Amino acid sequence: AELERLACHLDVIVRLADGAGLAVATARFGWHKERVLRLVGQLAGSRFGRGVVIPGGVTGPPALDPAALLTAISELDRTLTPDLSLLMGTASFLDRLRRTGPLPPDRAAAHGAIGPIGRGSGAADDVRLARPYAAYESLALTVSSRSDGDALARLEVRVDEIAGSLHLVRQTA
Fold first, then answer.
1. Per-residue model confidence as pLDDT tens digits over 89-116
2. Non-local CB neighbours of 103 within 8 Å, separated by 6+ positions
3. Helices 151-172/66-87 angle, 10° precision
4. Rounded to whole angstroms, what are the CA distances from 97 to 117, 120, 149, 156?
5. Which residues, listed in sequence order, are joined to residue 58 by a DSSP beta bridge?
6. Cα separations (Å) of 59 from 1, 30, 62, 150?
7. What SS3 state is found at 56?
8. CB 136 within 8 A of CB 128
9. Beta strands in the chain (DSSP E)
10. By C-alpha distance, which of 172, 109, 110, 170 is closest to 145?
């Protein structure tokens, strides 16, 4: 589930970088997403987790041993984290997101915004804490939240969640 979360967050970053005309960032984050999907394929037999990832958990144990998973996650982290730092330090990119698509906290709450959109607008809800399943009850999980409610706040939540997902996968391996 955390690898699926990683792939989704990376997909959003690819699309934001592409929309900002950052060809190198688009290619780099596309490659990171591809690496996550390949890892899911090694673990589940399908790069999209078909037949394995189901609501509330998984249908069986991973097909990759824990040491190989830790190696893959460490390598992903080693290359992904510097790219995230570079992207989040690119003023022209951040300027495109700051104050774009604002969703004030009261409106987000009124409409039941959840996930990175809700957490980018001040919510602190996370289904992994509210209704934990499988190993989530025993994992050290932190929830990222921002109050600005703009596209940058939503991206910052995603960046925090990427680090959190890498940490969670390490805890389970």
1. 999 999 999 999 999 999 999 999 999 9
2. 113, 117, 120, 121, 149, 150
3. 160
4. 14, 12, 11, 11
5. 53
6. 12, 28, 9, 37
7. coil
8. yes
9. 53-54, 57-58
10. 109
What token pair was written down for 51?
A: 């037949």
Six-digit token string for 99: 């104050």
| Contact (CB, 8 A) for 107 and 150 | no
Single-letter code of the amino acid located at 126:
D
- For 58, phi then psi, to 5°, come to -135, 160
Torsion angle, CA of 132/103/145/6, rounded to 10 degrees?
Answer: 60
Q: Residue with structure tokens 């040491």?
A: 67
Record the tokens describing residue 115, joined without a space: 């996930």
pTM of the model: 0.92
Please give the span between the terminal C-alpha atoms of the chain, in angstroms, as a whole number. Answer: 13
pLDDT tens readout for residues 155-172 = 999 999 999 999 999 998
Structure tokens at 1: 């589930």
Token pair listed for 31: 């490659």
